[in-house]
Amino acid sequence: MTMTSQPPLHGYDLLRNPRLNRGTAFTEAERREHHLEGLLPPAVTSIPLQVARRHAEIANLDDDLQKYLVLSDLQARNETLFYAVLMSDPATYMPLVYTPTVGEACQKFAHIFRSARGMYLPISARGRVSEILRNWPEPDVRFIVVTDGERILGLGDLGAGGMGIPLGKLALYTACAGVPPQYCLPVVLDVGTNNPGLLEDPLYLGLRQNRVRGDDYFAFVDEFVAAVGTLYPQCCIQWEDFANFNAVPILARYRDRICTYNDDIQGTAGVALAGIFAASRITGQKITEERFLFLGGGSAGTGIAELISRAMAREGMDIGEARRRNALFDVNGLIVASRQDLADFQRPFAQDHPPVSTFVEAVKAIRPTGIIGVSAVPKLFTREVIEAMAEINQRPIIFPYSNPTSRSECTAEEAYRWSHGRAIFASGSPFPPVEIGGHRFVPGQGNNVYIFPAMGMAVFATGATRVTEEMFIVAARAVAEQVTDDDLATGLIYPPQGRILESSLHVAERVAAHIFDQGLARVPRPNDIAGLIRERAYRPVYPGEI
User: Fold this and answer.
1) DSSP state, 108?
2) Is 111 found in the same domain as 59?
3) Is 108 a catalytic residue?
4) Is 364 assigned a catalytic role?
C-alpha cells in the first residue's frame, strides 16, 4: 500500500495508518501539506532518534510481556519504526517478539488484546472463506503463516490465542530476512478449542466450542487452501503449531500441489541439521558417522530425523540405513519394529531392537553421538542421561529444542556441568553464557529463525512454485558455513543473532540458486542472485516523499 495507490491521507487518518505514519519524523513541509500541524509536537525527529527513544522506553521496563506489548503497540502505530527498532538490535528484540515471550502472550492473548491484526477464519463460516479473505486490504499476499492454535509451542491448545504465533513469525520474516511486510498475512483457522480454561473464560475471543475433527476439519482446510490459491496465486503457506495428527497429513496433502511447508516439521529439521553440520567441525566426524536419539516421536522429531537421513543419503548412504541411524523415543519407550501403536510417519525410524522403557537405557543401548529433545517436557535430559552421553562420546551433542524455556529438556549449565564442559550444546530457547573451570561457554539457540525467514526471502525473490526438502538441506549448510572458528571455540554452533540479517540474506541467496537450478522459479535467473536478494529486501526507512 502506497500513497500513489489510494487517495492521499491527511491529519489523524495519516497518523493512524501504521504503514504510512512517520510520527515525529514528518518534516515541516509534510506537516503543512498533510494537515498535521498542531497534531504533533513541533520538533522534527530523525528515525535514529525515534529508535533511541524506543530503546530507552523498553530498557526501563522490567517485565518481558510489557516489552512485548510496547512493541506490539508500536507495530500497530508505526510499522517502519517497529522494524527499525527490531533490526537495530535483533539479539535483544527477537526473544521479545517471538520465543520465549510470545508463549506468555498467547496464553494471555484474550486478556491483553488491543487491536485487530491478521485474519480470523472460523469454521462457522464454511462456504464463505474466500469472501472473508477478501476483507484483507492488501491485494497481493505472498506469505501466509497459519495456525489452528492446537499445539502452541510446548503450551498446548490455546485456540484463537495462537494468533500470537503467526504475528511473531511474520515479524521475523521481515526483521531477519527483509521480506516486505505488506506481502505477509497472519491467519488463525478457528475450529474451536478443547481447553476448558479458555471455554470458561468470559474474555476468550475464539469460537466457544470443542474442536471440530475429521472430514469437516479437512474440508475447511481444503476450502482455505483453495481460497488462497484463487485470491493470491503466488502465495506460500507456512503451517504452524498444528497437532501432530493434523500437521503430518496436511503437509502430505499439499506439499506437491502448492508452495507450502510446515515450519515445525521442516524448519525445525533445517535448523537442527545446521547445528549438526557445525558440530561436525568440532567432533571431526562426517554426518554419515553420526547416530541420533530423539526424545519425542511426533512430527518435529520425525521431521528432523527424515532431513538428517536425506542429508546422509546425499553423502552416499542408503536411505534405509540412514533412517536406522535416527532412533525415536516417545512416551511408550523406544520406537521399535515390534510395537503395535506406531503411526505411519514413525515406522521408517522403528529400530530392530528389543523394547526399552527408559530414556537413559535407550542412550546406553543405541549409543548415539547426539540426543535431540522435542518432547515439550522439561528436565528429561537428566544428569544420568548427560553423564551417559559423555561416557559414550568425547564431545556429546546435546540439543534440548523444546520451547519455551520452561519446557526445555535441560539447561545449558546442566549440559555443560554434567559433561564436564564437553557437551556441544544448542537449545530451542535462549540461555545465558556459562562459566566452568575458567572457560566461558556461549550456548547456541537452535531457533528456526535461522531458516524460515531466509526461506521466505528466497521464495519471495524467485517466485518459487514449491518448497522442497532439498531446499532445507541447502539452507542448513548455508547457516553452518557462517559459523566461524572463533564461534566454535566458545561452543557457539549458530551464527550470532546480532548479524541475523546478513546471515539470512546469505542463506536466501544459496536457496534461491537451488530454486533456479531446479527450475522452480517464476522469474528469470539473474546474473547476480545476491544482487536480486538484496534488491528485493525491505529496509526500515521512510520513503522520500508521502
Assistant:
1) T
2) no
3) no
4) no
